[in-house]
Design goal:
By secondary structure, this protein is α+β, with helices and mostly antiparallel strands. It has helices spanning about 1-25, 35-55, 70-80, 80-100, 105-125, 135-155, 160-210, 235-240, 245, 250-255, 255-270, 325-340, 360-365, 375-380, 385-395, 435-470, 480-500, 510-520, 520-540, 565-580, 605-620, and strands at about 55-60, 65, 215-220, 230, 275-285, 285-300, 305-315, 340-350, 355, 400-405, 410-420, 425-435, 500-510, 545-550, 555-560, 590-595, 625-630. The protein is built from 21 helices and 17 strands. The protein has a 5-stranded antiparallel beta sheet.
C-alpha cells in the first residue's frame, strides 16, 4: 500500500502543478469569444489529463491509476459541458491507446467523473454562484467521484478486485478528494482574481467616462518620477499628441522646460501633502493659453503622497498674440530684415499676401511691397495648389513645414496660425528660408557618399581576389594545400552526413628531378607540372576538387565516387598523360595511390595516410602505376 500511496501522491502533485500552469496561462489567454475560449480550455485541460495519464502509478501492466478523475470532476464543476466533453475525448482516447486489463473501468471512471462534476454544477450551483462555493463542497464532490471510481474497480476480471480495492481503493478515497479540493482551490482563487480584475476594469472605465466629459484638463502625475500616468481627452486634444505619447513622458517634455521650472515650487508644496494652485501661460499646439492649474495630492493608506492630481481650467478662450496689425507688421519687419536668408509673409484669409519683408528680397533684387496683394497663383505659379493645401491646414490651426523649389532656389517654408480673440484664424504667418546652399552641400555629401560606396565595393572585390589568390597555386592555378585541407574536411563531413563514399587520389609526377636536370626548371619541370594539372582537370567533374599538395604531388577529392570508378578514371587519365608530349619535347608519367572513405580512413589524416601508402607502393612497383590501398 505504501507504493500505491506514493504513486498516487506523485500523480496528484503533477496534476496540481499542471493546474497552476493552466491558471497562469489563463490570465494571459488571447481568446475572447466564449465558444472558442471553452474549446481552448477543453484542449488545455485535455493535454493536462493526457499528461497525468502518461505518468501513472501502475498496479501491474495494463492496470494504471492516476488523477484524471480529479481533473474531470473539477472540469465538470467549474468549466462546464463543452470543456468537459473535450477532456473526456482526450482522456478516453489516451486510455484506449494505453490498453490493458483496466480499459473498461478506466473509461468508465472518465465518463462518470465528468458527469458527476457536470451534475454537481447544474443541480447544486448556478454559474454566477460558482465563485462562492466552499472548499468543503468541492471535497464532498471529490468523495462522490472517487466512491464511484472504487465501484468501477469491481468491474475488473475476478478475483482481481479483491487485490485492487484494498490496496488502491482506500488510498484513492483518502488522497483524491483532498487533491480535488486543492485543485478546486486553485480554480476558485483564479475566479476571485478575475472578478477583482473585472471590477477594477469597470471602475477605470467609469472614471474614464467621467474625466473625459468634464470641461477641464485632468491628469495624474507620478510624484516620484514626475511622469504622466493618466490624462483625459481634453488634455490630449490640447497638446495635439497621442495619449500613448503623453502617458509615461516627463511633464517637462509635454509642458516645456520653462513651464516646468515655473511649476517646481508648487510641486514641492504637494510633496508636503498640501493642495495648491497657480496661473500661467502654456503653448499647446502652437496656441498660447492662460490656464489655472490646481495640484491635489494623492495620498495612499500609509499617509504618503504617491501622485499629483492635476485639474486645469482654461482662463481665456484665446489671447490674441498681436495687439494690432500695425504693431505686428513692425515686429515682423524687424525680425524678417534681420533674419538671414529668409523672408516673412502674412497671408490673409483669401490666401493673398497681406505683408511681406525679409533680407532675402534684397539679395534677389526684389521689392517686397510689390508682392502685397498677390494671389498664390501669381506668387507660386504651377505650385500654387500644393501651397494652398498647406496654407488651408494652417488656417485650420495646424502649423506646417514644407519645401519648394522656385526659379532654381530651394526654400523651406514654416507656417503658423495667428489667432484672433474669438479663437478664429484671420491670417497666418509664413516664414521662408533659402536653403539653396544647404541643398548643394547635401548633394555634394551624397555624391561623396556614392564615391565612397563605389570605392568600398572595389575594395571588397580586391579583398575577394586576394582571398582567391591565397587559395591558389601560382604555377598551376589549382587550389593549394591549405584550401585542400579545408575542402577535404568539408567533403568528409558531407559524406558522413549523407552516408556516401568518397575517393581520395594522391598523384606524384614521375622523375621530376630528371626532367628539371634535362630540360630546365621553366620549360621542363614547370611545364610538365602545368600539363599534368591540365590533364587532371580534364578528367574531373565540377563537383571534384583538385589541389597541388606539394612540389610534384597532387590531391584529387572525388565526391560520391566509389573506388572502382575512381580507379578507372585515374587509369584513363594516366594513359592520356603518357600520350601527351610536353611542348612536343618529352612525355611524362605519374604514379597514383587511391583510398576510399570510410573503409580506408574515417578522418582526413588517416585517409591521406592510406592514399600516401598506396602511392608509395606505386613508386616501389616501378612508377607509372595506379595502386589502391590495401589494409595490411
Amino acid at each position: 500500500m505504501d507504493s500505491s500511496i506514493t504513486g498516487l501522491l506523485n500523480n496528484v502533485a503533477l496534476l496540481l502543478v499542471a493546474g497552476f500552469v493552466f491558471d497562469v496561462m489563463g490570465e494571459y489567454s488571447p481568446v475572447r469569444k466564449p465558444s472558442r475560449r471553452q474549446l481552448t480550455t477543453g484542449v488545455i485541460l485535455g493535454v493536462v489529463g493526457v499528461g497525468v495519464m502518461l505518468t501513472p502509478w501502475e498496479f501491474f501492466p495494463g492496470l494504471i491509476f492516476d488523477t484524471r478523475s480529479i481533473l474531470l470532476g473539477i472540469s465538470g464543476l467549474f468549466f462546464g459541458t463543452i470543456p468537459t466533453i473535450v477532456v473526456m475525448i482526450f482522456t478516453i482516447t489516451a486510455r484506449l491507446l494505453i490498453g490493458g486489463t483496466g480499459v473498461v473501468p478506466g473509461v468508465g471512471v472518465i465518463f462518470t467523473s465528468g458527469l458527476i462534476g457536470l451534475a454537481w454544477r447544474h443541480l447544486r450551483w448556478r454559474d454566477r454562484e460558482l465563485a462562492d462555493i466552499r472548499m468543503r463542497e468541492v471535497y464532498l464532490m471529490g468523495v462522490a467521484v472517487h466512491v464511484v471510481m472504487v465501484l468501477w474497480m469491481m468491474t475488473l476480471p475476478w478475483p482481481l478486485p479483491l487485490r485492487v480495492v484494498p490496496q488502491v481503493g482506500i488510498p484513492v478515497l483518502i488522497i483524491h478528494p483532498v487533491g480535488t479540493a486543492l485543485l478546486g482551490w486553485l480554480v476558485l482563487e483564479r475566479m476571485a482574481r478575475m472578478r477583482s480584475k473585472d471590477a477594477l476594469q469597470r471602475s477605470e472605465h467609469q472614471l474614464r467616462i467621467i474625466t473625459d466629459n468634464i470641461p477641464a484638463y485632468v491628469a495624474l502625475v507620478d510624484l516620484k518620477e514626475l511622469r504622466y500616468r493618466f490624462v483625459n481627452n481634453k488634455f490630449v486634444d490640447s497638446y495635439k499628441l497621442s495619449r500613448k505619447k503623453i502617458v509615461g513622458s516627463h511633464i517637462k517634455d509635454i509642458i516645456g522646460q520653462a513651464n516646468y521650472e515655473f511649476a517646481k515650487p508648487y510641486i514641492e508644496i504637494v510633496r508636503k501633502g498640501q493642495a495648491t494652485s497657480y496661473e500661467n501661460s502654456f503653448v499647446t499646439a502652437g496656441t498660447k493659453r492662460w490656464v489655472n492649474v490646481n495640484y491635489v495630492p494623492d495620498i495612499n493608506e500609509n499617509g504618503e503622497v504617491e501622485a499629483i492630481i492635476v485639474l486645469s481650467h482654461d482662463m481665456t478662450e484665446r489671447r490674441q498674440m498681436e495687439t494690432t496689425l500695425r504693431d505686428n507688421e513692425i515686429l515682423l519687419r524687424t525680425i524678417a530684415e534681420n533674419y538671414p536668408n529668409s523672408y516673412l509673409s502674412i497671408i490673409e484669409k483669401d490666401l493673398s499676401v497681406g505683408f511681406t519683408s525679409g533680407s532675402e528680397f534684397a539679395k534677389q533684387g526684389l521689392d517686397p511691397d510689390s508682392f502685397v496683394g498677390m494671389t498664390l497663383e501669381q506668387v507660386f505659379g504651377d505650385q500654387a495648389e500644393r501651397v494652398k493645401e498647406y496654407y488651408q491646414k494652417t488656417f485650420a490651426g495646424e502649423g506646417q513645414s514644407f519645401e519648394l523649389s522656385i526659379n532654381g532656389q530651394h526654400q523651406r517654408y514654416t507656417t503658423v496660425p495667428f489667432y484672433a480673440e474669438d479663437g478664429s484664424v484671420p491670417r497666418i504667418l509664413a516664414v521662408a528660408e533659402n536653403i539653396t546652399e544647404q541643398k548643394k552641400y547635401e548633394l555634394a555629401i551624397r555624391d561623396a557618399n556614392e564615391q565612397l560606396r563605389v570605392q568600398l565595393e572595389e575594395i571588397k572585390e580586391l579583398e575577394s581576389a586576394l582571398r582567391e589568390q591565397a587559395m591558389r597555386d601560382p604555377l598551376t592555378g589549382l587550389f593549394n594545400r591549405r584550401y585542400m585541407e579545408e575542402a577535404l574536411q568539408q567533403a568528409l563531413l558531407r559524406a558522413e552526413r549523407k552516408n556516401n563514399v568518397l575517393s581520395l587520389v594522391l598523384l606524384d609526377l614521375d622523375h621530376l628531378k630528371l626532367i628539371n636536370d634535362t630540360y630546365g626548371h621553366v620549360s621542363g619541370g614547370d611545364q610538365a607540372l602545368r600539363t599534368l594539372a591540365n590533364q587532371i582537370q580534364s578528367m574531373c567533374r565540377g563537383s571534384d576538387t583538385i589541389c597541388r599538395y606539394a612540389g610534384d604531388e597532387f590531391v584529387v577529392i572525388l565526391n560520391d565516387t566509389p573506388l572502382d570508378v575512381a580507379y578507372q578514371r585515374v587509369s584513363h587519365c594516366q594513359k592520356v598523360v603518357s600520350n601527351t608530349p610536353v611542348d612536343g619535347k618529352f612525355s611524362i608519367t605519374f604514379s597514383a595511390g587511391l583510398a576510399q572513405y570510410p573503409s580506408h580512413g574515417g578522418d582526413m589524416e588517416s585517409l591521406i595516410k592510406s592514399a600516401d601508402k598506396a602511392l608509395f607502393k606505386a613508386k616501389a612497383l616501378g612508377r607509372d602505376q595506379v595502386v589502391i590501398y590495401e589494409d595490411q
